[in-house]
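Hey, can you fold this one?
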Amino acid sequence: MKKTICMLLVSVLLFSLAACGGSNASAPPAATTPPASTTPATTTPSTPAPAAPATAWNPDNIRSQSFILGHGQGETSQVGAQYHEFALAVEELSGGKMKVEERIAGTLVTDTETLDAILDSVIDFAHSMGSYVTGLVTDLSPLTIAGYYGGDDWNSFADGIFDLVSDIYGDYNIKYVAPLYQGNSYIACTQRQIKVPGDVTGLTFRASGTWVSKTVDAWGGAAVTIGLADLADSFSKNAVQGVATGMNIIVPFKIYEVAKYITFTSISEGFAALLMSGDTWARLNADEQAVIMEAGKIFQRKAYDIAIENIGVYEDTINSEGKNEVYTLNAAEQKQFIERAYSVYNEMEGELGPKGLELIGILKRINGIG
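Sure. Predicted structure:
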């Protein structure tokens, strides 16, 4: 009996020792080599950091409010589509708290009235053509000549002069939010193909604004002021023989149907901008201002994409319908137009302040004009 009990005690002792030894043998390798999923983020630099829009503005500081954006272009026009992107961006970035009401197609103001409407706080945002505002914002004049930029990277160009242009507008209590890309200038003419400035000599050209008109004069033509709605009819009646304008005018306004000759260029069409009332800007807190400026950046890029897409469609329309004789300026020919246009600066310089003169210097350098 005693022998049996002893054997049982030995068996129990051996089983306990085996159990203890088994516990050590089955320790998981994770204790010495953690799986990748539990490795701290600091040891995996290849993992991209999550987006953190809150670093730009605090959503809790955004107040519910609405703004009015006014211009004279239609909803389905290129300009209408471009500015709609700004309204969408403001609402999205603000989480729906900031809304932009679009008063378009001249229902509140025409494009020639937007500057006064901004200054009087009738509207908060406006589409503003540079040529319409130089009577007041004089130092902006260098950007209003035909040929102010003839390069192939407009967005980088616009970004490079952003601070200076902001200072120019700021002198008049106007907040410059973003530039608007309108594409290139195309020359439409009823009389002959325009390849060099001398081909403009003796022709009447539609122009808007003092310095655009003086540019036409420098090319040898005679500038006249005609509303866009009346331009096609004026061509038909020979009241005007030519115009340098954007493709978003030449096709939608049916200019190509009455002007046989079309010249393609890479000279940027007139400078335009998304402006904001300085009083409205001052009422916003820093986070709300950050939303507006970020929306402006989105607007600038999307407006550019819209214009590029439209230009392709408009050019296809002209080429496919076969109503026109089309010519594309080569680099040497285009430079002649730009150099003639820049000769206008000699007269302009006497009317400019230091910022306007600085702008001329930048434009000359960028365009390779001595």
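Confidence is low (pLDDT under 50) at residues 1-47, 49-53. Let me know if you want another pass with a different chain boundary.
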